[in-house]
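Milestone M4 deliverable, item 7.
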Amino acid sequence: MTVARAFLLLHVVILCLSFLAIFAAASSGGLFIVQTNGPSAGAIKHGLGFSPAKPDIIYVDRYKSTDGGNTWREFSLPVDEAVRAIAVDPKNADIIYLVVNHTIYKSFDGAGSWQKLIAIDPRGDNPTVSALAVNPDNSNIVYAGTTHGDLYKTADGGLSWQSISGRLGTNAPVSRIVFNPQNTQEIYVGAGSWYLSALVGLPKKGGGLLVSRDGGENFKKIESDFKNDLVQDVDVWGKTIYASVHHAPDSNEEWRRIYKSEDGGVSWKTVLDKRILTHAAVNPKNANHIVVSGADNEPFYVSKDGGVSWKTVGLSSSEPIRYTHELEIVDDNHVYALEYYKPFMKSSDGGSSWRWSSDGIKNSSVYALRIHPANRNKVLAGTGDGALHTTLDGGKIWKRFFGSNLEGGSIAAIEFNPASSATLYFGVTGATDRATGRYFGSPWRDTGLYASDDSGSSWSKMRGLAHPYGSGDNQLEVYDIFIHPQNPNLMLVGTASEGIYRSEDGGKTWRNANNGIPKEGFYWNLNLKPEGNTPRERCEGEFNKYKAGQKFDTGCFYYATHTSMKLAVRPSNADEIWYTTLNGVFVSRDSGRSWQWLSDDLKNIHVHFMAFDPQDPDIIYLGTHQGAIDSHGNVADSSKGLLISRNGGKNWSQTASGPGQGHDIRAIAVNPEDPNMVVVGTEDPLYVSRDKGKTWTKLATPKLKEADRIQIDNSAKIIYMGTAQAGVWRGIIDYSSSSPSLMEVTGVTAPAAAKAGDNFSVVVSIDNIGGRAGSMPVNVKIGEFNDGKTADLSFTDQKTVNFSASVKEKGEYDIFVNGQSYGKITIGGGSIFSGLFENEKGESKGEEQAASREEKTGEDGNILKSEETGYFGKLFWPVFWIIFAATTILVGLKIAPKIFRAIFKRTGNK
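Output delivered:
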């Protein structure tokens, strides 16, 4: 073979391999994940800042609003860690001081970029900064207080810091630093906060109120009745000072009050005394206008006469408030607050009424997640604030159902009825009655099981799950729900403290079903601390009542085997149900009538999530977790990672790679169409296997942490993930950026019935899981109604197309979309169901602003190629061109002399 022919053949081979690589990469696809636009909620404990010069520009944690809090966008943090405090230059909204964990950063461009400031502690051992304050007259002068009672000052914008802790004279956490706006040489420091004390593991410690009248050169503790108490908040206007004080001694005399001084702190009087008071804010234009935040059914108090009289401001019954972390009065009308589960709240009438305004703040923790069986873009998410969120378009717009007594609990389970997706249930757990310490419902906080038979338009509480040791309407905490796939009247629920309950009549009546599940793994709940008693003393007293057959407080102790985690059915036998607990796994082979231990090897192991291979029921996946209970009642770490059995549960093995020893398994999902694919959520957070758990690939995506709930839709095209403090994420199972648009109607939402001649809504869910933008016609036909629109979707986009329909003739009609039937509607004299988004009283609770806007899905995503072709396809072209160029040069150098000699010889002969 000549050199020229070899050169040509080599190029042909390389080109063929190129086409094969392109085909392999496009066909294999990858897992593409993006954060959805919600649910808009989540705990933000620190960081509210704005400049009085531009009060519509607000910073909350890692979010910024430029429209007074109506909408929010996330900005990039200098490091992805916890935000502890924010302070904004009072005269320039673009200059921000930000505390991230132990470090202070500064921005000059409104959170566009950050400059790391020098350590405030010259030894380099930075404490946690808990309070920041910028001098209103000079933004280069900033004070920083810490959780250990230290105080630091910079006079050059953070280039250097000076410790003035010795002048402060306290080691209680610095909760608040305030400049007197009429005299900035006067600085007040509140010392003491129960929350900050708990953060650093200290007892409730108070340091009273301190003041400097010489610009921070000297501080003096103000003599008062509360000089040794926790001053959680302080606000000042001239000689008028308001202090929110928490008195927490080792006795039963705990109280919270608002104190007022009108002479610069010389004398004080109580102006408000309530069970829970957190923050106090004074109007910067009117010292007599004060707003105080409380909790629960009395979230705010407003006074316009300096505390002589107060107006108690309650939110609507469907949106109670649990706990307020920050409170600021902007002017006569506008007041801002951070709340534990509804991050930003706003009043536009001086505090007399409030609205939740957190659209775009995606800090929600998802405890339950379900995809509608017939529509992959219709998703329900239960969150840790006791709210049920729903989306019809895959997560671009979320709406919220908030039961009147659910906040403080968590919606931990959602389940559709297998016979009718219009019937669904959710379970609530985790509510706490502060008065009794009980971990079940109270008159203003509900746990239990809720049901809807109209696709979620209305909900009712199922009353049969009364707590055996409760009183009144106390219901059990429902942690998981199981409905028999062949007999929907047969239901089981796993409770947080009393094991399994079983119903044979669709949830009308219930009975305890722990036959064969012994009470093992006794453990104290030492989180309960009623005033005047140590937890152990209190709980031992309640345990003695229990042994004596007396009524007792179940919030003190539990049994690990009756602390439910997950109920699952084996695919090969609908009557075989598995039950995971804090102390191993139980199996029932008679639909939950009786149970037995699965294996002694799993005792004393906290087994949380589990999943079966849908095609091979002998392959079972168990997720272990920390927080197991050992034989002595102590909490133990049982993080053994993912356990896999390939023989029906007889033997178990840990994964050799991926989510193995030391990992907390937070979620497991097996692809229903291709069970080779297994997705496991951990704290890392995500591992994917394409060979039934033999090998694993880690998916690292910024901001995707702690994937606690994972669901793959029935078509095996879309995956959803519910996270801790990052909302819901959506992914495409086999995504290729080079693929054309793939437009599909995923489902239709319409009422079951409507009155003849009345308008009713038909919502068509559209999805594009392709890598290119596209358009598709959408035609709806119901009887004589016939209308068409065009849906334009970008790549990986999803949306809803809304139609207002009307049918004059009575009867039952098919709902046709593009010629295909998506259910029926009865036209007659019945009323219209108004959709998924109503509260339990039938009052619309959707945010119109969010509904009228279609926000773009988050841009950051990841493509996880399969191990066989992913990296090859990704790296092929760069490698190809390098090889091609090198080969061309080498071969060229080899044959060029021969070519020139041949040419020279031929021309020479002429």
